[in-house]
Amino acid sequence: MKMGDVISQLLPLVLMLVFFVSLGLFVNRLVRNQKERTASTMEIERKLDHIIKLLEKQQS
Fold first, then answer.
1. Which of 14, 12, 10 is nearest to 1 (CA)?
2. How far apart are CA 25 and CA 47, in angstroms?
3. Residue 57: exposed, middle, or buried by beta-carbon count in 10 A (0-12, 13-18, 19+)?
4. What is the pLDDT, as a whole number, of residue 46?
5. Which of these, 48, 28, 25, 22, lies nearest to 36 by C-alpha position?
6. Per-residue pLDDT tens for 10-35?
7. Where is the chain membrane-spanning (predicted)?
8. Which residue, 32, 13, 14, is CA-closest to 24?
9. pLDDT at 19
10. Residue 2 DSSP one-character state
11. From CA 55, how far away is CA 60, in angstroms rounded?
12. DSSP state at residue 60
């Protein structure tokens, strides 16, 4: 086997490996960001509920 043959066989395998690793990292980052956004949204909702209760109490 010549060196060109080895490279021509390994290059697609390496590119596929890089593609799948990149795809996995991308999906992992999306999931992590979604969890952070959900936690942030819940915290904002909790604070807004508290503000609404204080305003209702103040009006009473």
1. 10
2. 33
3. exposed
4. 96
5. 28
6. 999 999 999 999 999 999 999 999 99
7. 6-27
8. 32
9. 98
10. -
11. 9
12. -
Work out the number of other CB atoms within 10 angstroms of the CB of residue 24. 10
Residue type, 7: I
Q: How confident is the model at residue 3 (pLDDT cuts 50, 70, 90)?
A: confident
Q: 18: which 2 tokens?
A: 């890089």
Residue 57 identity (one-letter amino acid) = K
Distance CA 8, CA 19 (A): 17
Model confidence at 4, in pLDDT bands (50, 70, 90)? Answer: confident
42, amino acid identity: M
Helix (H) or strand (E) holding 17: helix 3-59
